[in-house]
Amino acid sequence: MQLRIGLAAIWFVLPTLVFAVATPSPGVPSSSFHERESRVSTTMTLTRTWQFVDVRHISVAGSCEDVQQPEALTTPAPLYSASARGQKIKVSFIIGTDGRVHTPLILESAGLAGDRRVLKTVRTWRYRPATCNGVPTEIEGKVEFSVR
Fold it and tell me: 64: Cβ–Cβ under 8 A, 6 or more apart, which residues?
């Protein structure tokens, strides 16, 4: 039994070791990641415009007398390349009762690569959810990114 387990382990590990030894290591970049990131962040300014809209549900009876907007807990900015200067991207999404972003949707595009980067970043955002009379509720958020 132990011999079979040992052979199975070698069978799965050996190709990985061969690939690791055969793969050349990448060259050292001329500047570090932190230097490139600081260069990008100092040359471009990212602005955001926020807007929140109530999401009405058929099952909700009555209205909200006390609506509290969501509070951003973690909303990092997407990284843009220098070629993105002057572009705008507008995104719509739902902030769920769990504070997570659901169904982000590009409303105004700036190209496939920029859209993917923005959607990937927006999906990681976390909020303290909006409340209706003290009860967490879903709300639609819209944000416009513009690179200057």
Answer: 54, 132, 133, 137
Give the pLDDT confidence of 61-96 residue by residue, as tens digits. Answer: 567 888 899 999 999 988 766 556 678 889 999 999
Q: Measured between alpha carbons, how far is 108 from 123 in angstroms, rounded to an integer?
A: 17
Q: Residue 98: give its domain's CATH number.
A: 3.30.2420.10
Spatial distance between the Cα atoms of 134 and 74, rounded to a whole number of angstroms: 22
Within a domain: residue 119? yes
Q: Rounded to whole angstroms, how far apart are CA atoms 144 and 146?
A: 6
Residue 111 has pLDDT above 70, yes or no: yes
What's the whole-number mean pLDDT along residues 31-58?
Answer: 60
Nearest residue to 129 (alpha-carbon basis) of 62, 79, 72? 72
